[in-house]
Amino acid sequence: MAHIIGGLTSSHIPAVGNAIAKELFDEPYWKPFFEGYPPIREWLSRNKPDVAINIYNDHGLGFFLDCMPTFAIGAAHEYRNEDEGWGIPQLPPFPGDPKLSWHIIESMVEDHFDITSCQELAVDHGFTVPMQLFWPGAPSNPDMPRVVPISANTVQHPIPTLQRALDFGKALRKALLSYPEDVSILVLGTGGLSHQLDGERAGFINKDFDKMCMEKIVTDPEALAKISRMELVEKAGAQGTEFLMWMMMRGALGESVNPLHSNYHIPISNTGAGTMLLECAA
Ligand code: DHB
Ligand code: FE
Q: Helix crossing, 162-177 with 243-251: angle to 10°?
């Protein structure tokens, strides 16, 4: 049977993709951010997941405002990346696992989550930047797992509630644990933490709220699920709604997790950048 080994979170800021391409790892601006990743890469090299479920929010590459699925799951043999205009080098396609994808989709729909299934899907920086941080050289890294991309709408209101995101993760856990093949699975939640890219509050970051989220995502995600979407936008900024991805990831890990590593740094570009490694209880 399949088993879930843990979860990772990472901000997915496009400027990080450019810093990786230019190898700015030791520059004073970037060092405190990149320092958050080697302990996770070390854990990954020991644990080597077969599959990474990458929960991210598409920003207009795979979907656009004319057609915005609330929850979309990739069911393709591979996922291409394209130029989004951020100046980040375009990556080769990422290898998929359509058999697992369809198992997840079947199980989620059985559990009353109405899924958009994508047999073709272009993945944007929300997906690719964390992949490059965790598996340098991705997708060409020799330890690169197969991927299942899951995108949730945080772009066009009405977006899902935090409770729905957590419940989605719980149903995803049920789906993964019922997969008959013996595969080890890692779940990524990308995006966040607090940031707002436009409007009067452009540049808004809320360290206290971010720190509270990083603590409660470990100990009490149910308490976070009670935060309303209005409050989330108020406290985390308009794009801080990407915290929904963290909640989806957390729901998939089960009740108790072991927080092995975390890093928080502000600002990276416009964002409070949070990185975490949560290991599943044996
Ligand atoms: C930034 C952050 C994001 O999450 C994103 O999707 C794009 C840009 C930023 O801080 O620049
Ligand atoms: Fe984003």
A: 40
